[in-house]
Amino acid sequence: MVKSKKLILLLLIALLTLSGCAGFKTKNTSEVEAEAGEKVVVDFWSFWGSEIRRPVIEKIVDDFNKSQDKIEVKHTFVPWGDIWTKELAAIAAGNPPDVVINENNGTALRGMKNQAMNLSKFLEKDDISDRFYPELWEATLYEEDSYGIPFNTDTRVLFYNKDAFEEVGLDPEKPPTTWAELEEYAEKLDQKNGNNYERMGFYPLFGIESDVWMLNANGSNFFDEDGSPVVHNDVNVETLNWIKSWKDKYGDNAVNAFKSQIDSQQGNPFFSGQLGMIVQTPTFYTQIRDYAPDLNFGVVELPEREEGSGHTSWGGGFVAEIPEGSNHAEEAWEFIKYLTDVEAQEYWAVKNFDNVANIEAAEKAAKSEEMPEKDQMVYQMAVENMENTLLTPVPTYAPDFMGLIKPEIDSILLGKKSAEQGLQDAQSAVEKLVEKNKK
Amino acid sequence: MSKKLFNFKRKEGLQGYIFILPWLVGFAVFTAGPLLFSFGASFTNYNVTSQMDFVGIDNYKSLLMDDQLFWTSLYNTFYYVLFSVPLTTMGAILLSALLNQDVPGMRFFRTIYYLPAILSGVGVYLLWMQLLEPGTGMVNTVLSWFGIAGPNWLFDPNWTKPSLILMKLWSVGGSMLLYLASMQGVSKSLYEAAEMDGASRWKQFIHITIPMITPVIFFDIVTSLIGGFQIFQEAYVMSSNGDGGPVNSMLFYNLYMWKKAFETFDMGYAMAMSWILFIIVFIITIFNLKMAPRWVHYEGEEK
After folding, report:
1. In the list A200, A349, B203, B219, which could disulfide-bond B199, CB 3.0-4.6 Å?
2. What is the largest CA-CA distance in chain B?
3. A112 reaches B (C-beta below 8 A)
4. Per-residue confidence at A26, pLDDT binned at 50, 70, 90?
5. B244 and A259 in contact by Cβ < 8 A?
6. Interhelix angle for A419-438 vs B58-66, to 10°?
7. What are the domain boundaries of chain A?
8. Whole-complex ipTM
9. In this predicted structure, what is the pLDDT of residue A194?
10. Contact, A434 vs A226, CB < 8 A?
11. How many Cα neighbours within 13 Å face the side chain of A77?
């Protein structure tokens, strides 16, 4: 008995010590909040934790905090892989952050599902919708109401090596403007040594995927205005056959060898002149700047399928949302307004070399004195390309439709199915999904 | 005496329950509770935030009747389990048999072969993605020394699952340790007796070693079966954007479930999926337990 009493005593001591630890901790956090004083604390989540991005966003937050004395924004970095599942859990638990950066393709879906707050009540008071590129703004709408404010975006452009152009007798100031020219120029740029490619002219699936080419070819998304899927059509069949012809031309070995070098970043064959042209986001320029500063390159909009079909490109991007259930929505809105206003956006654009959603800020950034001439040239091109850029927000009635199209595209490119057959199968699978969800 | 409310035995039992109370509460609140909730919610269109209406067996019906990807993911998972479980089990037994020999420097070899088991997670997957790179990766480079043109591994739908199985084989060290421990426990007198009767090394292995370690084999098979059905991370990390690889060849059951739950927010649907998986694994495990007495040998057990 004595022994067991001793044991219980020991357990009690352990318990007290542990609870003591917990008490100490709570005191600490309450002290932090006391420091903020009477200010309302806005909890802001982003995934920008890298060496480059974190200081930029924290400077913006800091500037906002200093610009007024009612709101204190607290920035929390949540890693990319966790942020949105954590957000969902926090919303479900009724204790969400007040502002979260989320990707713009799913804003409408989250609006429909009551995850993101309807921002109409704020927009009625101060309508800031005309700050942004219309394409970006429309992606935030669900049934005419906005559920997120555009923050940044991107687009796809063609980078080409001017020196290589000159070397094979092409005019370095006349980059390809159609698919036919792209093929012709690539053919000229190709340099073969035995079975190995010493230089590859161009390969359409480095940097982007087949769906971007279909977007480029059609000038529209996989859904028409009534919301019916358009996966199988003549243009898409032609597009996939065209991509397949590139794949057959170079062969898997050459493609894989180049692909693995591209994935390793520093060894990108475009930097060493082993790849003549590549489609990338304008931010790709920062890698050129860091790894191949002497590269003589040009940037141009994506070539069009045939003359007049349009230089359509594809973009994504991020928005600032207020999760449903936030206790400080008013204050969160004030912060979002600041975050997407010219000053903060221009700072972000210049420091990160990133496309921003605010039109005025983007145009100012392109002329910013902080950017060297070459930076300005690429940035200006990126800004101009926004006109050609389409977003692909997921339809709320078929959010996971790409999961049905991708395997069919894979089968087509692997030669397991004809383009005609594969696209027809994809079309009927997506139709079935839409039908099921609309029911 | 027996009418007393707290006799010694009962008192002792009560104390026992008090001691394990934290775990009981934890189980009820954090395991059994969510389990029951997910069972209930699998009959609704629950999406966490805006809706939870009863839809009867609609989720189960559309999973089994109209969802092609459900069957793809189930096929992929079965394929993986069917190959990876026997192969890793055999690999581990073979390896531990080799490491059970009396050779100088054995400690060194044991360490080497166990090492992969202590490395885990995303780092290992990234490492293997580099090793399996079709053009420049180690695996294909070594194969090319012998004049073999290696496959495209993670880019060829026929080779993605074998790639993952190969990766699993590399890290059999964990179960190898269990086998090794149990092999060392096999009485030397058994081998001596067999040797006197003229049994070869191979016969000794088949008729003495294997039967003596069947309890560990059984344990290993049951746990790796359950683990195999839950494969998720490998596919999530090793396919581009976690989308399930070329032609959905790495779209495993749990990956598809995760996508339904957190990308399209069809939580009710995903919960129905998890219950179907539960039933499958449950049936297989019961089958295993029923079959066990036929081949698992426990020492000192009375027949």
Report:
1. B203
2. 85
3. yes
4. very low
5. no
6. 170
7. 38-153+316-391, 157-315+397-438
8. 0.81
9. 85
10. no
11. 11
Model confidence over A44-80: pLDDT tens digits?
999 999 999 999 999 999 999 999 999 999 999 999 9
Burial of residue A74, with CB atoms counted within 10 A of its CB: 0-12 exposed, 13-18 middle, 19 or more buried? middle
Residue B13 has pLDDT above 90, yes or no: no
Is the separation of the CB atoms in A45 and A76 below 8 Å? yes
Q: Inspect the interface and report whether the beta carbons of B262 and A436 lie closer than 8 Å.
A: no
pLDDT at residue A100 tops 90: yes
Answer whether B142's CB lies under 8 Å from B131's CB. Answer: no
- CATH number for the region A157-315+397-438 comes to 3.40.190.10
Q: Does B262 touch chain A (CB under 8 A)?
A: yes
Q: List Cα–Cα distances, A279 to A209, A282, A298, A314, A405, in angstroms.
A: 10, 9, 12, 11, 22
φ, ψ for residue A316 (rounded to 5)? -130, -145
Q: What percent of chain A has pLDDT over 90?
A: 82
**Identical topology for domains A38-153+316-391 and A157-315+397-438:** yes
Tens of pLDDT, residues A380-432: 999 999 999 999 999 999 999 999 999 999 999 999 999 999 999 999 999 99
**Which B residues 69-108 touch A at CB under 8 Å?**
69, 72
pLDDT at site A21: 47
**With 70 as the cut, is the pLDDT of residue A107 above it?**
yes
Cα–Cα distance, B251 to A67 (Å, whole number): 49
Distance (Å, rounded) from C-alpha A267 to C-alpha A275? 11
Q: Residue A94: exposed, middle, or buried by beta-carbon count in 10 A (0-12, 13-18, 19+)?
A: exposed
Q: Judge whether A253 is closer than 8 Å to chain B, CB to CB.
A: yes
Q: Are B175 and B114 in contact (CB under 8 A)?
A: no
CATH number of B57-295: 1.10.3720.10
* Domain residue spans of chain B: 1-41, 57-295
Query: What is the homologous superfamily of the domain A38-153+316-391 according to CATH?
Result: Periplasmic binding protein-like II (3.40.190.10)
Percent of chain A with pLDDT over 70: 91
Asked if residue A363 has pLDDT above 50, the reply is yes
- Tokens standing for residue A329: 């929505």
Task: State whether A404 and B69 contact (CB < 8 Å).
Answer: yes
- Residue B58 DSSP label: H
